[in-house]
Design a protein that fits this description.
By secondary structure, this protein is of the alpha/beta class. It folds into 2 domains: 172 residues, Periplasmic binding protein-like II (D-Maltodextrin-Binding Protein, domain 2, 3-Layer(aba) Sandwich), CATH 3.40.190; 147 residues, Periplasmic binding protein-like II (D-Maltodextrin-Binding Protein, domain 2), CATH 3.40.190.10. 33% of the residues lie in helices and 22% in strands. The strands form 3 sheets. The chain has a 6-stranded mixed sheet with strand order 2-1-3-12-4-13, sandwiched between helices. A 5-stranded mixed sheet has the order 9-8-10-5-11, sandwiched between helices. Strands 6-7 form a two-stranded antiparallel sheet. Helix 2 packs across helix 9. It is elongated and about 65 Å long. The two termini are 24 Å apart.
């Protein structure tokens, strides 16, 4: 999963060395036709999954595909983090950004950006935060069952109706959420960094909704990363932890019996994937063509599928944006903005 950074802050956008965009249409032409001429070039800013010297090579196939099909130059620029992409868009140093959901929300709220596409991972545009436990007798109202996590073809344990036995798991939340009220005072709960939607933000909101004072009623055990959140429960360092669906697949080598020892007992409401936002300064017909091309990119070639997964960890984009999910994400993020 890609990291989520909500803090917008004062960032040195100039350090991105982005190329600005200038339009060639005149005011009179716009007034007469209601359209705007396309710019000669646009800049796409993103935070890739790959690192180091492979960046240019990884980004080039996507920008080449867009340039050839749009008929204008599409330049790709690597940003240091997601917040930097938002600031670049606000300064018109990038006109297209690929970012996490929190940054999309910021771009829309602060700079009137348009949400064009949503990220697709293994067929889904959103995912649940999962409550994991090593104490199913306490948290499960029924006997845990095994369901197949199809993305990794691994059977894992679930209870409280989060999944059905013998079929592919769906990861659809909220489910079993009422069981969070069973977290008693003093319980050790492993929590990830406060910027983590699945490891902190959505679980904190869900526990508070269940009547738990997350500052006083639980003992928070700090962990870094979803794998360590799972391992904290597996090793008995915490009774409950939270991570994305399904983070248990990240520890099967060091914990081969994790499917039996760590049970998923609750799903929060769904957390939206990130996506693509575009500047409000771009002509509508350019946005439409760009959106269509990016929507079709993963299916354009076998190379494209590989590039997309290697570049940004995705299997596809979709124009079904579900803006309400992004708006809800923004509501939750504001609770942690300080």
């Amino acid at each position: 999963m890609r990291k989520s950074l909500f803090a917008a802050g004062a960032l040195t956008v100039a350090a991105l060395a982005l190329t600005g965009c200038s339009t060639s249409g005149t005011g009179d032409a716009e007034a007469a036709t209601g359209t705007t001429e396309w710019p000669d070039s646009i800049t796409l800013s993103l935070v890739p999954s790959v690192e180091g010297e492979d960046l240019a090579e990884a980004l080039d196939p996507l920008t080449t595909y867009l340039s050839e099909n749009l008929g204008i130059k599409v330049e790709g620029v690597v940003a240091s983090d997601y917040a930097a992409t938002v600031e670049a868009l606000g300064a018109d140093q990038a006109q297209v950004i690929i970012a996490d959901a929190g940054s999309l929300y910021n771009a829309m709220e602060q700079y009137d950006a348009k949400l064009a596409l949503r990220d697709v991972r293994f067929g889904a545009t959103s995912y649940a935060a999962v409550g994991y436990t090593n104490n199913p007798d306490k948290y499960c109202a029924d006997t845990p069952v095994k369901a197949n996590y199809a993305a990794s073809n691994i059977e894992l344990s679930y209870c409280n109706g989060t999944e059905q036995a013998g079929v592919d798991a769906t990861g659809a939340g909220p489910a079993g959420i009422e069981s969070l009220s069973k977290i008693s005072k003093g319980t050790k709960v492993a929590m990830q960094a406060a910027t983590s939607p699945a490891g902190y933000q959505y679980p904190i909101v869900a526990m508070r909704d269940a009547g738990i004072d997350t500052d006083k009623d639980i003992t928070q055990v700090p962990v870094e990363g979803n794998n360590n959140a799972v391992l904290s429960v597996y090793n008995g360092d915490a009774e409950v932890s939270f991570g994305y669906w399904d983070a248990r697949t990240t520890v099967t080598k060091e914990a081969p019996d994790v499917a039996d020892k760590v049970v998923a007992f609750a799903y929060t409401e769904m957390i939206p994937n990130g996506g693509v936002a575009v500047s409000s300064s771009l002509p509508a017909d350019l946005v439409a063509d760009l959106t269509k091309l990016m929507d079709e990119y993963a299916d354009s070639s076998e190379e494209a599928k590989t590039v997309m997964f290697d570049l940004v960890g995705l299997s596809d984009w979709t124009s079904k944006t579900d803006e309400a999910e992004i708006a809800r994400y923004g509501e939750i993020l504001t609770q942690f903005s300080n």
